[in-house]
Amino acid sequence: MESEAPAALPEDALAEVLRRLPPHLLPRSRLVCKAWRDAVDDRLRGNLLPRSVRGIFINFEGEYYTEFFSRPSTGPAVDGELGFLPCTGVKVKDHCDGLLLCRESGYGAPPRPREYVVNPATRRWARLPRRPPPHFPGFDHTAHLAFDPAVSPHYQVFVIPRVPSQLPSNGESDDDDDNNPLLELEWPPASYLVDVFSSVTRRWDTTTFIREGEAAGIVADMQFGRWYYRYLYHAVYWQSALYILCEHGYLTRRTE
């Protein structure tokens, strides 16, 4: 006589059982079956984040690699050097809710360094495809990570154009860039294209940013204003909106 399949636990009971697992085991439990995956995604998404600080990543100016500082802990060790990645070293460029956006760094890094999104707690990682050609030739670009595990297991990476410390000459003069027409452009523009990578589609797509309100100034103001410093491009992803602090103290927001 064949035995009957065991009855499935009610959703509430299953969620309570899974809630008692260590947070670093929840991503694996999602792979057991559809019911477990749905329970984690619908009820326990916030539990995917660690409940204690295991260490901090610090970028020192002039250093190729990001340093990891941690204190002794009885919990699972975090590989702060990210030695499980297929490269010699990386630098953390951004972070969001436990995920790191890293870029290959060091003496042996290729001209177009590879980029990774990494979960240092679970050692899971994904390599990003090469970025598309920039929509603003001659400008710099900063990548920002958007991820909220309480809403979705998927993340996005936004590549935001920014004014470089020195714009290229327009070719009419080798000594003076004042005639460069780019210097007279409004910044931020009324609308501009932004490349966005999605972990759902696994590809780069293009979206349009629309400016609300007046421009902060022109490119020349951004380039030489007292607020300018190429490393001061900080972002916060909060309540499905990405806030980016850029030149001259203006704020860019991208909402879902």
Automatic annotation (TrEMBL):
Species the sequence originates in: Hordeum vulgare subsp. vulgare (Domesticated barley)
UniProt xrefs under InterPro entries: F-box-like_dom_sf, F-box_dom
Signal peptide: none
The organism's place on the tree of life at top rank: Eukaryota
Name of this chain's protein: F-box domain-containing protein
SUPFAM superfamilies noted in UniProt: F-box domain
Domain F-box: 3-53
Gene3D superfamilies: 1.20.1280.50
A Pfam match: F-box
